[in-house]
Amino acid sequence: MKLLKILPLIVLMLVLFPARSFADMPKIEAGEQYFDVFKGYFVLKDKVRVEINNHGHSAIITADEAKVNVPSQKCWAEGNVNLVHNNETFSCNTAYLQWKTKTAEVVGNVKFNSKKVMSVTAEKAIFNWGDKIVDFYDNVKVKGEKNLQLEDGLKIKKKTYSHVRYNVIENKILMLEEKSDTPDIEIPDPDNDKSEEN
């Protein structure tokens, strides 16, 4: 009987400690939280805050709900999602972060602000915080300040674009496309997550 009481703790330790060699354990806060031993992730609800630190790259996520899989270094967030990385802020309906690959996929009513240089609204975006590039897709609207830079030959002359690429370090728009093939950004189900083998 005593073994049954400590078994979940043993499983939790086995799951969490190997992950520390890849990235720091995220700081997790929520009104309600528990670790689902069978699914292998934390379930968070009500005033969720997750702080990720991966070798000097950090991000803070707040949301209504989230699931965090520490071994695979992934986070799924839903409802009133805000993602802050340095001076960049995203808000959206749903987000999927992978801190091994330093990427965030944000979907639904995406709003982005960067260093008071520009703001963007779009339907979806992919942010790579390793190379500091954001790709915005579908119904993209850009509002830039005077110090916003544009790649040679580019001018913001349309109200909406299909695809906009932005470098957050250089504060520069690299691409403005009126028509483009939008990639499918489908946030995977955490229950069917296939973690990469190391």
Summarize this entry quickly.
The chain is mainly beta and 198 residues long. The chain is 9% helix and 55% strand. Strands 1, 2, 3, 4, 5, 6, 7, 8, 9, 10, 11 and 12 form a 12-stranded mixed beta sheet that branches.
Form type: elongated
* Whole-number mean pLDDT: 84
The run of helices and strands is HEEEEEEEEEEEE
Query: Helical proportion?
Result: under 10%
Q: What is the count of helical runs?
A: 1
According to DSSP, the number of beta strands is 12
Q: pLDDT below 50 for ≥5 consecutive residues: which ranges?
A: 1-7, 16-22
> Which range does the strand content fall in?
over 45%
- Ends distance: 35 Å
Largest sheet: 12 strands, mixed
Structural class: mainly beta
Whole-angstrom Rg: 19 Å
Describe this structure as you would to a colleague.
With 198 residues, the chain is mainly beta. The protein has one helix spanning 2-19; strands at residues 27-29, 32-36, 41-54, 57-69, 74-85, 88-98, 103-114, 118-128, 133-144, 149-150, 161-167, 172-177. Strands 1, 2, 3, 4, 5, 6, 7, 8, 9, 10, 11 and 12 form a twelve-stranded mixed beta sheet that branches. A hairpin with a 4-residue loop joins strand 4 and strand 5. The radius of gyration is 19 Å and the shape is elongated. The model is unreliable at 1-7 and 16-22 (pLDDT under 50).
